[in-house]
Amino acid sequence: MQKTRIILALDVLQRAKAISVVDETSQYIDAVKINWPLVLGAGSRIITEISEKSPVICDFKIADIPNTNKLIVEQAMKLGAAAVIAHGFTGTDSLKACVDASGGKVFVVTEMSHPGGKEFTSVNAERIATMAREQGAMGIVAPATRPERIAKMREIVGPLQIISPGVGAQGGKASDALGYGADFVIVGRTIYDSDRPAEAAQKIAREIEDFLIGK
Amino acid sequence: MQKTRIILALDVLQRAKAISVVDETSQYIDAVKINWPLVLGAGSRIITEISEKSPVICDFKIADIPNTNKLIVEQAMKLGAAAVIAHGFTGTDSLKACVDASGGKVFVVTEMSHPGGKEFTSVNAERIATMAREQGAMGIVAPATRPERIAKMREIVGPLQIISPGVGAQGGKASDALGYGADFVIVGRTIYDSDRPAEAAQKIAREIEDFLIGK
To answer: A70, B11, B109, B135: which could join A97 in a potential S-S bond, CB 3.0 to 4.6 Å?
Structure first.
């Protein structure tokens, strides 16, 4: 990874659309993040197919008991995932099962940026970030829409990777997220809803490059 | 539903095994609960295939932002799910998205019975049960291994359905779960790991029948 600092959130439902966006943009992105709606819409082999073009992060928000978490992660890795995204609120043993089954390739959700995220996740975010570090996760997910929180999370997780959604259509800025300590920004609609996904991705990649050079 | 009060937790990975267990046991169960490992292992069409034999509850522990939750539920229902299982801790708006997309066919996880479930879920269980009722969910999930908690949950959710995992191999008793207020018990390994799944299911169905008659 770490070519452009962009992770493409491929939040589409159809195989054809998914593949065409990846084909057009893969040179401008570091990884593709896919979620359950695409797996349900296109079948689980879509993980394998995309993984042949770009590293795939399965954003499965895994949140079950340890044995089920283990099975989900094993299946995802077998299908070609490079990493998975799991929740921390189901507890230390559930997160550990994900870490063990993936060889540490887990990003942990700390808090979520939608309004309901304030009810239960925000208040536990720092505890969950600490757990992510202690359990040997690869990194955490922290929203670009609250960049000051990224800085706080960086303090807690130290050298772990921080990947940051909410850039583009949701209002977050790549430069803010990276400036406050994120390693990668996650961009969805701004790229896949564009008439020219490659140009849209390249534009963000250039903005990031300019920002990082100027830093 | 409500023939034997048994929901089969079909925690297997292979299509052939899944179909054979359902074929053998469908007359002794009210519904089949499937989880992500089976979808990843056998493909999402397994939902449709099983739904032609028994109502399917997609135990997807849905825990994402509202729009993603909506898409997951829509896809699951389109594939034939009768209901889904969602988490409440991602907040009111996320749960509401599941309720709206499924026409209310949502069971909400209140607390979880594994050790890590005590860290973040147990403390919020009553608040989440209240949310389930207020948002118009069909029911909640509460562990048979802590039957006194089922009674507490019944107090909170009133007429909602309570489905209760942990019966059998995990140590919970069907009679305890039902006696303390559950509507359905969820049984997995005791049935699908049996050499004779039909007999195993029938045996539990008879125990439940005896218990309910004696009550």
So the answer is: A70
- What is the structure's pLDDT at A145? 86
Q: Is A103 on the interface with B (CB under 8 A)?
A: no
Mean pLDDT of B46-67: 98
Q: Cα separations (Å) of B44 from A27, A45, B23, B67? A: 30, 10, 19, 20
The answer to whether A61 faces chain B, any CB pair under 8 Å, is yes
Whether A61 is catalytic is: yes
Domain count, chain A: 1
Interface touch B75/A37, C-beta < 8 Å: yes
User: In this structure, are residues A79 and B13 in contact, taking their beta carbons and an 8 Å threshold?
Assistant: no
Q: What domain range is A195 assigned to? A: 6-214
Residue type, B152: K
pLDDT digits (tens, 9 = 90+) for A148-173: 999 999 999 999 999 999 888 778 88
The full length of chain A comes to 215
In a domain, B130, yes or no: yes
- Domain holding B44: CATH number? 3.20.20.70
Percent of chain A whose predicted confidence (pLDDT) is above 90: 90
For B81, which residue in chain A has the nearest alpha carbon? A40
Interface touch B91/A120, C-beta < 8 Å: yes
Residue B160: inside a domain, yes or no?
yes
